[in-house]
Amino acid sequence: MTQMSSPTLGVVMLNFGGPGSLQDVSPFLQAILTDPNAIQMPVPHVAQNLLMGTIGRLRAKKVAPEYENMGGKSPILESSARQNEALQQELHQRQFAVKVYDSYRYVRGHAAQTAKQIVADGIERLLLLPMYPHFCYATTGSSVEQLLQELQKLKYQGEVSCVRSYPESPKYVQTLQDLVQQSLQQHQLDPSDTVILCSAHGLPQSYVDDGDPYQVEILATIKQLKLRLPTWRFELAFQSKVGPAQWLTPATDDAICDLAKEGIANVLVIPISFVNDHLETLVELDETYFDMAREQGINPFRTAPIETHPQFISLLADEVEHWSHAFAIPAKLLLPPSQSFQRYFQWLIYGLLVASTLGISQLLW
After folding, report:
1. Residue 229 phi/psi, 5° resolution?
2. How far apart are CA 16 and CA 237, in angstroms?
3. Contact at 8 Å (CB) between 269 and 285?
4. Phi/psi at 239 (nearest 5 deg)?
5. What 3-state DSSP class applies to 15?
6. Cα–Cα distance measured from residue 348 to residue 359, given in angstroms and rounded to the nearest whole number
């Protein structure tokens, strides 16, 4: 292989992020709830910021003790650092001199810090590498948008490409298969009384109806797993619902209840599309849902997190190698749909409502 020694190549591992201390819990939650790509509300963006910012502060009081039980911070930060180091080592073994960065979507100021370092390092070609295996505008799209905005503020002139997703990549599917088989063997589970439940982070149904490919890509991964493990029954469910809107169904807790009614003895949960452990796996799954499962007579088990599984890190390195030699998707093509017109229209409606309430609507006509 020809050694690549150009110092102008950079890779950014895009991830969700998490609070680094108990003081960071409230800003972290507010950052999620005020992201218009993650939470699309039928109100002007400034109104969403005010409303959801308040909800985030109130929610933090309930969530902070859960983070305190995990050592006072999210484990995703150290886990992501291990992934970064593992990828750097793999690229070094392949004789690729590429600088690897992280960008955490909901750690305030982190994307700006990363962008400044990229510019300072003189990076001319940049690859955005999502730690979201399945494309969604609320995850990959939002992370790409944030980093591009920060680079634009610095008048960055380099080429920015992005890996879209990798739901059917043989190495990604192999990673999941390895983790499933390890759990099946460890707990001596049998296909006659066990269901493998793929629990994905939820998404409002309206996003999918508008064309978001997230659900389709998750189903594609499960299809590949079924082909590799044909004697096992797989089901898909969605967790972490927020707000009153209709979300993808079935919900993970509902799915567990339905399996209990069927008389299923064991459930092996794959936190599909998650590559790190964090609150949704360590608390929502391991505690809330698993306690519920036990109450209903089901023995719950979970696969280990992907994190630095050799096949997964090899997949990421493959993506970097392919990008360095061939055309890649321009990152701007993966941006979420613009909400500018929608927000402007909402401002107009709200303005008319306010005017009407104040009794001055006649002045407008």
Report:
1. -130, 65
2. 21
3. yes
4. -120, 180
5. strand
6. 17
Q: Please state, in angstroms and rounded to a whole number, the distance separating the CA atoms of residues 61 and 26.
A: 8
Q: Which two tokens stand for residue 71?
A: 């050592």
Nearest-CA neighbor of 13 among 170, 155, 162, 216? 162
Q: Which two tokens stand for residue 206?
A: 């309206």
User: Which residues fall within 8 angstroms of residue 220, CB to CB, at 6 or more apart?
Assistant: 167, 168
Task: Report the distance separating Cα 324 and Cα 320, nearest Å.
Answer: 6
Please tell me the distance from the alpha carbon of residue 222 to that of residue 251, in angstroms, as a whole number.
Answer: 17
Instruction: Please provide the size of the chain in residues.
Output: 365
Give the pairing of strands 329-330 and 9-15: unpaired
41: tokens are 């509300």
The pTM (predicted TM-score) of the whole model is 0.90
CB pairs under 8 A, 24+ apart, for 20-26? 20/73, 20/74, 20/77, 20/107, 21/72, 21/73, 22/64, 22/67, 22/68, 22/72, 22/73, 24/73, 24/107, 25/60, 25/63, 25/64, 25/67, 26/56, 26/57, 26/60
pLDDT in tens, 109-159: 999 999 999 999 999 999 999 999 999 999 999 999 999 999 999 999 999
Which letter does DSSP use for residue 337 in this model? Answer: P
Rounded-to-integer distance, Cα 329 and Cα 44, Å: 32
**Per-residue model confidence as pLDDT tens digits over 210-224:** 999 999 999 999 999
| 252 closest CA partner among 317, 298, 208 | 298
For residue 328, count other CB atoms closer than 10 A to its CB.
Answer: 19
Give 133's Cβ-side CA count (13 Å radius): 30
DSSP letters of 221-245? HHHHHHHHSTTSEEEEEEE---SSS
Residue 299: half-sphere exposure toward Cβ, Cα within 13 Å: 9
